Amino acid sequence: MTRENLLTDAERAARDSVRPPAPYRESPRDRITRLGAVFEEAGWTVETAVHPVRIRLEAFHPSGAVVMLTSDLRSTRQGKVRAYYLRPPGLGWWRRLRGRDVEYCAQHIGPPPDAPDHPLSNSRSSSKCRCGKVQHPTKARAAAALEDVGAVRAATDRARAPEARYYRCEADDRVWHLTSKTDGYTRHVPLADAFPSPRPSVTPPVSTA
C-alpha cells in the first residue's frame, strides 16, 4: 500500500499497461488441419476443401463410417467447428458429433458409449437444402442411387430425361442430389454459402432533356 502511494503517474500507467498474454485459442482452420492428421494416422482417408470463408473436411473409414467437419471462417467464435458422423457401413443419416468426441471417433470408429445420440433427419426442418429433390448424405450413396435410377429408367419406356450425374447441394454440405442436366448447379468449390450473391448493379437512366 505504501509503495502504491509512492508511484508516479508514469510508473502507475506503465504498470497497468502490462497484461498477461491471452490464452491460445485454436482457429477453425488450425483445428481442422490438426484433426485431419489425426484421422489419417488412424487409417481414414481424408479430403479437405478450403475457400477463403469456409472449410470442410471429410474423413472416410474402410468400414463405411464417415465424419464431416465444417466451419465458417467468418465466424467470430474462434474454434467453432461443427462435426457430423455417419455410422458404418455408411447407412442411415448424419448424426451430430460433439467436438470433444471427434478424436475418440477417429480412434474407435464411433463416438464414446456415453455420448448423446443426436440423429439428424434429412427433412426440411434440419437441413439448409431447399431444392425439393431427394437427398443423399454422401457421394457414394448418390452414385449408387444414380445406378439404380438408371437401371429402372432403362427398363421402362418413359420419356423423362434420365438422371445424368450427382452433385453436392450448395446449401448443405451434407446433401447430394441427382440431376439430368450435364452441367450447372456446381461451382469450382462447392461449399455452402461460399460465394455471397452479388447485388445487381443499377445504372441510372440518362436524361435526354
Describe the structure.
With 209 residues, the protein is an alpha+beta fold. 24% of the residues lie in helices and 18% in strands. The chain has helices at residues 2-6, 9-16, 28-41, 102-108, 139-155; strands spanning 45-51, 54-60, 66-72, 82-86, 95-97, 165-168, 176-179. The strands form two sheets. It has a five-stranded antiparallel β-sheet with strand order 1-2-3-4-5, with helices on one face. The protein has a two-stranded antiparallel ribbon with strand order 6-7. It is elongated.
What is shown here, in short?
It contains 5 helices and 7 strands; from the N terminus they run αααβββββααββ. It is of the alpha+beta class and about 210 residues long.
Write the topology of this structure.
Layout: H1 2-6, H2 9-16, H3 28-41, E1 45-51, E2 54-60, E3 66-72, E4 82-86, E5 95-97, H4 102-108, H5 139-155, E6 165-168, E7 176-179
